[in-house]
Design goal:
The complex is a heterodimer of chains A (265) and B (128). Chain A has 265 residues and is an alpha+beta fold. Chain A folds into two domains: 107 residues; 127 residues, Alpha-Beta Plaits, CATH 3.30.70. Helix content of chain A is 38%, strand content 23%. In chain A, strands 1, 2, 3, 4 and 5 form a five-stranded antiparallel sheet that branches. In chain A, strands 7-8-6-9 form a four-stranded antiparallel sheet. The two termini of chain A are 37 Å apart. Chain B is an all-alpha fold. Chain B starts with a helix and ends in a 25-residue tail after the last helix. Strand 9 of chain A pairs parallel with strand 1 of chain B.
Amino acid sequence: MTSQDDAAPIPASFDGARYVYGVLASEEVPKREARGLLGRAVRFLHRDGLAAAVTDVDGPVPGRREDLLAHFRVLEELAGGATVLPLRFGTVFDSDDEVVLELLVRRRALLDRLLSELHGMVELSVRALYERDLVLAEILAERRDIRRLSERTRGLPEEAVYFDRIRLGELVAEALEGKRERDAEDLIARLARVAVAVERGTPATERGVLSASFLVSRDRVPAFEDVVGSLQSEMGKRMQLRVTGPLPPYSFVSIIDDPVPAGDL
Amino acid sequence: MGARQSELARAPRPSNLAEVLDLILDKGIVIDAYVRVSAIGIELLTIDARIVVASVDTYLRFAEAVNRLDLEQTQNSMTLEDLQKGKGREEMTESGTKGFLEGVGDFFKGDKDSEEEQSTSTDGRRGG
């Protein structure tokens, strides 16, 4: 979050909309004032023990780089001292009353349940990447059929061995996929022992082995990091592991939105 | 403990925007009726930087890489063990994915980090 120096001025009688970052328990709301989107203050709206973190905005929010980062950083800072349920980027209500009614009242059961389940938990994101040449060399060493096909196709004019080379690449891709699966499962199994839950994503590149989010109890974060360190040592140069976090539990707050009908309030 | 610490690549906060996007655009609580992002943002939200799809192009690249590696090993009598010790390996920070940045234009210009993983799976979200 930006410090007080860059605060954008808020009109005297503001009648705009309310951007919501997330929800936390009222008693965990920080004392320190914070700045968020557009450099404006982060306020808290309370109802029966729940608090929504909001900022006054003029309407639908742009998705500029600084807006996205502001959203992320506000939540990151809140998560330092509280269990915070992050909302997806871009949630805007028309007024304080609407935030309270639509979020804190009508969806109270969901929010209470999530806060209770996630109390004292943080998210740690783990990504693993292969060192490509080392892994390809492993495949060459392990697979005689691939070695032979490679020998047969290298050094010859491309047109002559075009289809053989496609076949070679296909075999390598399959072998790589097999390695990826085995390594990923191994990593997850080891890390899951110090975690409460895991959400597996899809690695985004050819070199990706694993992209997963782990729900970890705050006091187990050092133990989790120890396991990552051990895994990195075991993997040596063939793989690079990265941990990000602690983060608010983005991956563990998916809900089936089922608000109390307004008429029932 | 000191040795282990230096091995572990610890990034306390996501060091590239793509990772942040993955968290705040694809995850978190969704109250659909109230998700409102203006036109400037929608262009961002419809970016779909997908994982590499297996294709002939991919296979040919693998073949080329394996041919080169195979040739290197044969010529230099390198063994797998040699490679593991660091001989002849490409740098970890070699960027094979910078092409992604060009696709999303100015948006990422601020990100100077050379990240191995640039893609994220933000599929087209319908902003309210």
